[in-house]
């Protein structure tokens, strides 16, 4: 299958969920924007709790991603399966981190006032 | 009054394709030349094949008339019916309005076709009206011949322990309920059958067996249930490696395989099935002569089997009005049952202005939606060549695909073609067709339906 064919199918796959992706993106960008406007910088702010939570949420992907696809972790067997699932877990971690990290900054700022 | 949406899904995809990513896509509408014509093209059938052709030809032809004959308002994603019958999907997930896929400018005739007069290039509709054509694409799909099983009707599906994933979307839902009722009884015998004819989605009878085994095992009472698989021939699947794999897996999962038995009659109230022993000369996708012999019940040894659940796979053929036309195969293995086309060019063997696509064609394999994806560009290119008086440039290599579900949650991506005794033709070099995989299951569960709609809209 060509790259173009794969992209076409991905577009069709994502099309019903675009509204959900847009809501999610709006929340994350809004949060990041709000935090940046209040002095947040990703490299300067440290929150072990946010990082730990993001890692834990990322790890939960190993359970809920197979469940969401009507399957179980026991059927994740091939190299491609594991690459796909680890990729999903990393993506979940990244989304959780870029949400929780600026959020923790805003909460800390609120508590310091 | 309800406001119209700002952008329909199709328009959204078109916008997407015209932006960045779209420029990378090999959409035929962006790359292929159009043809000026005054021809009238009739497409019989608005399933996957017919709708894909309507969308493709709309983009390629300027000035002609395209008529699509399809009585149904609802488009059924039939590859999803095994998921419905296995209790994984809701029935609603498989249905969309046909209008959603119908391209603008196509004359949609909401009527059944009743007759094809190939010599006079004329179609007669069920309401008596006629359509003259210059070019014809036969995409009528398949006819389910439940009547060849004595005592069986599609209305029985869901009652008396009878299931049949093929019957309809309602039949698939009722099959799920029948399986659930059997499971709830806590014990009993299930019989899974196969047909002595080519069938659409030849993997479906096997998938239904595997998903039911999953449900039996999940109940924690597997040993309380007996599962038999009754095959009319020596094989269970046309691809040799997969055939051996399925046989071994059935043995491992304590499925009693019985070969050379055809379901010949059913007594729903007694919950008994009669099987005719068709003998070791029988083949899985049997030829016409053999089928004729198989359906003759005189002097044929039979066995009666009690069941608590039975999955019925009906014999299949082209629709009667196609069988009664001059377009049906006159000799060879598909004689009297399937459309007579060249399996590579998909052009009719005797009527050059006629093409066939999808389940209706006489081909050794290929009754899947995946085959339609491969066939549609071939029919498009070859039809346009015929319209211009050119030689046929495109050839179909028999590509077909079956995500062979081996349990609820895992599958194998089985893709193969005509060559080398149905050798594998993997689309993705990194997916091994011989491995059971969660990722392949995810493709079946999440991605193949969107891919199917892309094919329908002529985008893939």
Please provide a written account of the structure.
Chain A is an all-alpha fold and 113 residues long. In chain A, 77% of the residues lie in helices and 0% in strands. In chain A, 19% of the residues are buried. By secondary structure, chain B is α/β, with parallel strands linked by helices. Chain B has two domains: 187 residues, FAD/NAD(P)-binding domain; 166 residues, FAD/NAD(P)-binding domain, CATH 3.50.50. Helix content of chain B is 28%, strand content 22%. A five-stranded parallel sheet of chain B has the order 7-4-2-11-22, covered by helices on one side. In chain B, strands 13-20-14-15-16 form a five-stranded parallel sheet. A three-stranded antiparallel sheet of chain B has the order 8-9-10, with no helix packed on it. In chain B, strand 23 and strand 24 form a beta hairpin. The N terminus of chain B is likely disordered. Chains A and B meet through helix 1 and helix 4 of A and helix 1 and helix 12 of B. Chain A: This is DUF5368 family protein. Chain A: Keywords: Membrane, Transmembrane, Transmembrane helix. Chain B: This is FAD/NAD(P)-binding oxidoreductase. Chain B: Its EC number is 1.-.-.-.
Strand and helix layout:
The complex is a heterodimer of chains A (113) and B (460).
Chain A: H1 3-14, H2 18-37, H3 48-68, H4 79-112
Chain B: H1 9-18, H2 28-31, E1 35-36, E2 40-44, H3 48-60, E3 61-62, E4 65-69, E5 74-76, H4 81-85, E6 95-97, E7 107-109, E8 113-117, E9 122-125, E10 130-132, E11 135-138, E12 143-144, E13 162-163, H5 169-185, E14 188-193, H6 204-218, E15 225-231, H7 240-252, E16 255-259, E17 261-267, E18 272-277, H8 288-295, E19 302-306, E20 309-311, E21 316-317, H9 320-323, E22 354-356, H10 369-387, E23 400-407, E24 410-416, H11 419-422, H12 438-456
Parallel strand pairs in B: 1-3, 2-4, 2-11, 4-7, 11-22, 13-20, 14-15, 14-20, 15-16
Antiparallel strand pairs in B: 5-6, 8-9, 9-10, 12-21, 17-18, 18-19, 23-24
